[in-house]
Every structure is written in structure tokens, then in C-alpha cells.
């Protein structure tokens, strides 16, 4: 099965943008609670890092993070397609059988 790399990257980028926007909303509505939750998740004290969220920082972060995730997932899709096709030198069942025969 061949993955549609562009569709996969677009879906990942859009999903990331939605999650990023929801996370930003949480940080805006309840900054103290969000900092406490992040502290538990990352095992770090981030309470001193709380700062107000601006429209500019929201837009910049949303675009940069979503684009980065889309690019990484696109690379993942390309590599998956190459591995699945057996063009990166990985042993596939057909190659293993040919080598033994």
C-alpha cells in the first residue's frame, strides 16, 4: 500500500493547528492551571515561564509548529513508501526468498 504523502502531511498539519489553537485557548483562559498541567507532563517547573499570549505569538507558533509537523510527517510518508517498496535496502520477504534460493 502506498501512502499519499501530501494528504498525510496536510492532515497532520491541520490536526496540529487545531490542537495548538485549543492548547492556546487553555493557556489564555487558565494560565496557572495550564502551567501546572505542563509542569506535570514535562516534569519541569514551568510556572515561572507563564507569559501573556498575543495574537502575533499565537499566529507565529501555530504556523511554525504546524508546518514543522507537516514536513516531518511528509518525510515519514516518503520513507514509508520507500521502505514498503523495498528501495532502501531493507530485507523484504521477496528479497529474503531470492537470496536463499
What order do the helices and strands come in, and which of them pair?
Blueprint: H1 5-29, H2 31-42, H3 55-85, H4 93-100
Overall description:
The protein is mostly helical. It has helices at about 5-30, 30-40, 55-85, 95-100. Helix 1 (about 5-30) packs across helix 2 (about 30-40) and helix 1 packs antiparallel against helix 3 (about 55-85). The relative contact order is 0.16.
How widely separated are the two ends?
26 Å
Give start-end ranges of low-pLDDT stretches: none
The secondary-structure class comes to mainly alpha
Largest sheet: none
The proportion of strand residues reads under 5%
Helix content: over 70%
Number of strands: 0
Average pLDDT over all residues? 88
H/E series, N to C?
HHHH
Number of helices: 4
Our count of domains comes out at 1
Shape: elongated
Radius of gyration equals 20 Å
Amino acid at each position: 500500500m502506498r501512502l499519499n504523502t501530501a494528504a498525510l502531511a496536510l492532515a497532520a498539519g491541520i490536526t496540529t493547528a487545531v490542537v495548538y489553537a485549543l492548547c492556546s485557548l487553555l493557556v489564555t483562559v487558565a494560565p496557572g492551571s495550564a502551567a501546572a498541567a505542563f509542569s506535570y507532563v514535562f516534569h519541569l517547573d514551568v510556572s515561572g515561564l507563564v507569559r501573556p499570549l498575543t495574537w502575533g505569538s499565537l499566529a507565529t507558533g501555530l504556523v511554525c509548529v504546524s508546518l514543522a509537523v507537516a514536513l516531518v510527517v511528509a518525510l515519514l510518508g516518503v520513507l514509508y513508501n520507500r521502505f514498503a517498496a523495498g528501495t532502501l535496502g531493507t530485507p523484504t520477504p521477496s528479497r529474503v526468498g531470492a537470496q536463499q534460493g
